[in-house]
């Protein structure tokens, strides 16, 4: 079998070898259409960068680390799995490899950083699940270790580059959909106050109702199907006029559907995250552009590692989309 080289890729994509090299090393200087054509050729041909030669040339390991989250109820835990899949794809196209690790909490994760950095020649980290008072970013920044986050620094100064999804706009779109279909009493099932993502998702619901000069009731519970069912039962019993629920997750939405069915209530339900379960049961849900988010994280990380990052941190906020199905 003929060895696949940069020249092979260039011929397949109809570009020069320098253009292929630019796509691999400095993609921002190549037009998006050309980048996609080259990346398609790379995927079709199965081209792999010679990592040993590149490491000798650049002095880098081409290895980045990211935490893998616990499965929890197996529904919304799959969201970050999809992000990790996208990050692995984007890293591979850029000639990097992803190392996964687990951690039970912030302190455990920081201890894991020290272990990994002493055992491996890591180039950088991608952090997920950012939250108020997150100590991980300051630990890495204080040691000049390159990183980007999938999630903004909730309540903290924007001192590092991040990519996030506009959670509030997602629940605004969900609520506006329900308003457009005639609902006037729309409740919200979310998480306890203090969660950056959860608070943003509640804010989007409240914003849409406020714009329509309407009120609605909300409940904040720990994420899960059973907790969602219990919260929905309480809200629907206390608010008999409620005909629709916007939920902060598909797990909560699944519980809400179960509660409404048990109570014999005709209640529209919209979830968030567009998980496989949502697709299987016909749940209308807000979908996050996880593959795009992963690709943008990788782009920002490469700018940092290549010394091409702007003087101020870069912040990327991506819009989600509403996927309409039978429940709303």
Overall body shape:
globular
Number of strands: 12
Radius of gyration from CA coordinates = 22 Å
Q: Which structural class do the helices and strands define?
A: alpha/beta
Range of strand content: 15-25%
Helix content: 40-55%
The H-level CATH homologous superfamily of one domain, spelled out, is Response regulator
Enumerate the spans where pLDDT stays under 50 for 5 or more consecutive residues: 51-59
H/I helix tally: 13
In the CATH hierarchy, the third-tier topology of one domain is known as Rossmann fold
The main β sheet shows up as: 6 strands, parallel
- Order of strands, widest sheet: 2-1-3-4-5-11
What attributes characterize this protein structure?
328 residues; alpha/beta; 434 Repressor (Amino-terminal Domain); Rossmann fold; six-stranded parallel beta sheet; six-stranded mixed beta sheet; 13 helices; globular; Alanine racemase; LacI/GalR-like_sensor; Lambda_DNA-bd_dom_sf; DNA-binding
Q: What's the layout of helices and strands?
A:
Elements: H1 6-13, H2 17-25, H3 32-45, H4 51-58, E1 63-67, H5 78-93, E2 97-101, H6 106-119, E3 124-128, H7 136-142, E4 147-150, E5 162-165, H8 167-180, E6 186-190, H9 196-211, E7 218-220, H10 225-238, E8 244-247, H11 250-263, E9 268-272, H12 276-281, E10 284-287, H13 290-305, E11 315-318, E12 321-323
Parallel strand pairs: 1-2, 1-3, 3-4, 4-5, 5-11, 6-7, 6-8, 8-9, 9-10
Antiparallel strand pairs: 10-12
Domain HTH lacI-type: 4-58
InterPro entries: HTH_LacI, LacI/GalR-like_sensor, Lambda_DNA-bd_dom_sf, Peripla_BP_I
Pfam family, one: Peripla_BP_3
């Amino acid at each position: 079998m003929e060895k696949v080289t940069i020249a092979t890729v260039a011929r397949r994509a109809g570009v020069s070898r320098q253009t292929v090299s630019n796509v691999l090393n400095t993609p921002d200087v190549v037009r998006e259409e050309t980048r996609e054509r080259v990346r398609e050729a790379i995927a079709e041909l199965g081209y792999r960068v010679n990592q040993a030669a590149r490491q000798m040339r650049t002095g880098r390991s081409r290895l980045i680390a990211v935490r893998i989250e616990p499965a929890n109820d197996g529904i919304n835990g799959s969201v970050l799995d999809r992000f990790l899949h996208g990050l692995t794809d984007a890293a591979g196209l850029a000639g990097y490899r992803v190392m996964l690790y687990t951690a039970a909490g912030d302190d455990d994760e920081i201890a894991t950083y020290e272990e990994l950095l002493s055992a491996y020649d890591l180039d950088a980290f991608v952090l997920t699940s950012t939250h108020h008072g997150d100590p991980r970013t300051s630990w890495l920044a204080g040691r000049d270790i390159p990183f980007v986050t999938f999630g903004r620094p909730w309540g903290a100064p924007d001192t590092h580059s991040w990519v996030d999804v506009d959670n509030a706009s997602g629940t605004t779109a969900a609520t506006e959909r329900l308003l457009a279909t005639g609902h006037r009493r729309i409740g919200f099932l979310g998480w306890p106050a203090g969660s950056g993502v959860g608070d943003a998702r509640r804010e989007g619901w409240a914003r849409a109702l406020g714009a329509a000069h309407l009120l609605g009731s909300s409940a904040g519970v720990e994420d899960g199907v059973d907790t969602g069912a219990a919260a929905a039962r309480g809200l629907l019993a206390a608010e008999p006029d409620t005909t629709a629920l916007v939920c902060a997750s598909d797990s909560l939405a699944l519980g809400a559907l179960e509660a409404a069915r048990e109570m014999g209530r005709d209640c529209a339900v919209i979830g968030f995250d567009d998980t496989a379960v949502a697709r299987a049961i016909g749940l209308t849900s807000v979908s996050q552009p996880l593959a795009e988010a992963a690709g943008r994280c990788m782009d920002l990380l490469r700018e940092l590692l290549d010394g091409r990052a702007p003087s101020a941190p870069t912040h990327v906020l991506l819009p989600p989309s509403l996927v309409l199905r039978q429940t709303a």
